[in-house]
UniProtKB/TrEMBL annotation, chains A, B:
The record marks 138 as: Important for catalytic activity. Homodimer. This is Pyrophosphate--fructose 6-phosphate 1-phosphotransferase. Pfam families: PFK (PF00365). It catalyses: beta-D-fructose 6-phosphate + diphosphate = beta-D-fructose 1,6-bisphosphate + phosphate + H(+). The lineage of its organism: Bacteria, Pseudomonadati, Pseudomonadota, Gammaproteobacteria, Lysobacterales. Its main location: cytoplasm. Belongs to the phosphofructokinase type A (PFKA) family. PPi-dependent PFK group II subfamily. Clade 'B2' sub-subfamily. Mg(2+) binds at residue 111. Keywords: Cytoplasm, Glycolysis, Kinase, Magnesium, Metal-binding, Transferase. Non-allosteric. It is found in: Cytoplasm. Its EC number is 2.7.1.90.
């Protein structure tokens, strides 16, 4: 048994495969006889000294995490500020780490988490506390810098492409007398990565999706209507995929167009798909339907990408390796070494190069007209949704997802107010 | 080769497995050396004499229909009226049948289609035209009379239960600092069958879905809020599944609450989930998210139920058998012979007993408080989502769905205006 404890925490929006990373972290550490605690609800658990003893979970449960979506230890949406502005909380983290002999801190999240891990490592150095901080990549948004792609994205991308292909077949069958325009709303506030993945559902100009709307291009309603009309007249129907984050040239989010209060003072929630569908109905007179998959797209472990799963497992294993080697302030990232056949490997990157950077979609991935993806985008995206790795199913027809016991570690410190 | 032609048509909303029925119809008929034509876009194709020669499709394509969602020949939302009111159209159908020597007419749809098939058979008898009309069951709504369940429902039910289990894991992980109430909108205007299927996602009182809202019970907002609050306080979050058809005691659809025109005169589309989510946010102050899967739930062949697929194939095969035996005005239906182990067989039913009837959910399937399903409902529903039968996937990570050539048969008649 190595001296010291490894603390693992999940951060931000969960994915279909973040638990696979957790599974790899814990099984790798166990094999190296390292004790693993997990913070309940991400960094909050670390601040609250609300820690989970993963050694209380049988190996079968830890292995089952590899096919279980969600965040098994809980996650949170909390961003620590700068070392100066949030010093008390950073110091509290060190205090908790010291109390539980945490020598390795693995923070599984996106840009913000990389930043937090980096700052904790700096503070530890300042105080002379021996700590190795490792960022572990995760996000369906695919917007992490340095890494070629992010674990979590491939599965959400596969869900998107498969769902769009399927509903397009439905619309095609009914278009003669029913729905002619169908709008699919994809997650992606700042970058259109998931909307782009929908483009994998079809190939030719008559294949769905016929129109993709990206936050990277200003939304022009008149041009959109013209394209919808042209498509319906040519194909008989039109499948539109819209990023939640599309906005007009002046920066107004299209999703906010329907949001606000109604005549009774009741809240109206926004939404790109419902708004676009309503506008198409009003202006072009077509029968419309729309879908908002929301969390379904990031929790659909049943249609996870094998590539994505493999990478989620690989970053978890590498994170423990890096930690035990003392490779402080790094993140295991995915490096693509070939497109065809697709090859990748895990390499270390400096958290400094990742924290607070955001990877946007290359301009060369968007078609000139802004309504679709290019061959270059297809080359990049296609390997990421490749392969299936369905969960085991029970006799009841449902995936056998595991729920952990999550036994709390006895607290040693006073309550923290902050 | 038997004398005469078998005409197959798809009707109403398509499903994940209606093409499996088509596949079984065509392969069974081919094996019996019977020529099969398909009507393009359902009964409209029959009226327009827009017929497809299925013999032009290779056997591999016909077999691939068994794993392809949508409606391969096109479907339509057209209901013929009574024989008296729509006599010209019924007579046109007979005229087209005569021109193409159609001796067997298989109409794959719900209540309305059973009614149309029945009327066509009566008119044929009146005119002394030798025709055998068979209804073939299909609907995700599960509201067909006589049959124990409807092909198409089991797969949509499985999609629903799996999706709710998955997104509930997501919400559970994030609830501490993010979404506390999640609302899932299920199809079902008149009957809450799909919402009920969501109940399979969990077992105990703390398992999602915590609240199911059925069109069978009047919606009472105050009671709903109280239940949401109680659940969030007990469990930490609350997953709600709402049928699109829920309404208040006076019959007002909740989905219409947000529908209408906004201040700019723009259409606002309705929706149960977005409305409930907004009301919960306003009244209880919880952070909310919601999903509207819409067509995704009925086209998700990738998560089809094996039971459902088997039944879709079985009714297709039986329909051809019944047709060739001259069992006019019948429908092959599913008879459940045992719950555990689940056993079923296909038996003939009279179209007269099915046409224009609607099967509602037994009162004993709803919990007394109206917010969940009973053990009896579970016993009925669970076998229907059992088993997996994923489609084959390509190297590109996408299901290999087939698109038919749909070669038109040369027209023999003048154009029909009607």
């Amino acid at each position: 048994m190595a001296n010291g404890t490894l603390l693992y925490a999940q951060s931000g929006g969960v994915t279909a495969v973040i638990n696979a990373t957790a599974s790899a972290v814990i099984t790798t550490a166990r094999a190296r006889r390292v004790k693993v605690l997990a913070a309940r609800n991400g960094i909050l658990g670390a601040l609250r000294e609300d820690l989970i003893d993963t050694s209380k979970e049988p190996l079968a449960s830890i292995r089952a995490l590899a096919h279980t979506p969600g965040g098994a230890f809980g996650s949170c949406r909390v961003k620590l500020k700068s070392l100066e502005a949030d010093r008390a909380r950073y110091e509290r983290l060190l205090e908790v780490f010291r109390a539980h002999d945490v020598r390795w801190f693995l923070y599984n999240g996106g840009n913000d988490s990389a930043d937090t891990a980096l700052k904790v490592s700096r503070l530890a150095a300042e105080y002379g506390y021996p700590l190795t901080c490792i960022g572990v990549p995760k996000t369906i948004d695919n917007d992490l810098a340095v890494t070629d792609c992010c674990p979590g994205f491939g599965s959400a991308a596969k869900y998107t492409a498969v769902s769009v292909r399927e509903c397009a077949l439905d619309v095609a069958a009914m278009a003669d007398t029913s729905t002619k325009v169908f709008v699919y709303e994809a997650m992606g506030r700042h970058a259109g990565w998931l909307a782009a993945a929908a483009g994998l559902a079809g190939q030719g100009p008559n294949d769905a999706p016929h129109i993709i709307l990206f936050p990277e291009r200003p939304f022009d309603e008149a041009m959109f209507f013209a394209e919808v009309k042209k498509t319906v007249e040519r194909v008989g129907y039109c499948v539109v995929v819209a990023s939640e984050g599309i906005h007009t040239a002046d920066g107004t989010f299209v999703a906010d167009a329907g949001a606000g209060k109604d005549a009774f003072g009741h809240t109206q929630l926004g939404g790109v798909a419902s708004h676009l569908a309503a506008r198409v109905k009003d202006t072009l007179g077509y029968k419309v339907h729309w879908t908002l998959p929301d969390y379904l797209q990031r929790s659909a472990r049943h249609i996870a990408s094998k590539t994505d799963l493999d990478q989620a497992l690989a970053v978890g294993k590498a994170a423990v390796d890096y930690a035990l080697k003392g490779m402080n302030a790094t993140m295991p990232v995915i490096q693509r070494t070939a497109d065809a056949p697709y090859r990748w490997k895990i390499v270390p990157a400096n958290l400094e190069d990742i924290a607070n950077h955001e990877k946007t979609m290359p301009a060369g991935f968007l078609r000139k007209d802004g309504f679709g993806i290019t061959a270059a985008a297809r080359r990049y995206l296609e390997p990421l949704i490749r392969g299936e790795s369905p969960p085991p199913y029970g006799r009841d027809g449902l995936p056998k997802y595991v729920v952990l016991k999550n036994v709390a570690v006895k607290k040693k410190l006073a309550k923290f107010e902050g």
